Amino acid sequence: MLGSQLNATLGTQPALAILGDLNAAVSAAGTNQSTATLLVESTSIVTTVGAGTGVRLPLTPTVSAKDRMHVANHGANTLAVYPPTGGALSANTANVPAMIAPKKCADFVCIDGTNWTALLSA
Description:
Layout: H1 3-10, E1 22-27, E2 37-38, E3 43-48, E4 54-56, E5 68-73, E6 79-82, E7 98-100, E8 104-110, E9 116-120
Parallel strand pairs: 1-3, 2-4, 3-5, 4-6
Antiparallel strand pairs: 5-8, 6-7, 8-9
């Protein structure tokens, strides 16, 4: 579960660790932000990545500040990871994706429900 869903379930009790849900077989789709596959699990392993395809991070109310998502690219091509519509990644221009090379991953931390910061693997 994402943090906001966990709070709805458990109330405001602090959690020591949030393991979240895993989708180990995500397929990237679309060639732009609006047609990219929407991610819903906190950990997503993208196994099918066609040239130019991508995924999109969720926005409020699905996520809230401090929620984290991990995205791994196990596909054959570079994966575009888009912010929610109108959002930005790491203070970049709105709607610009992060690019994850094959066999690499990234962690994303939600700043305010729309904007995210990204930590990309080398």
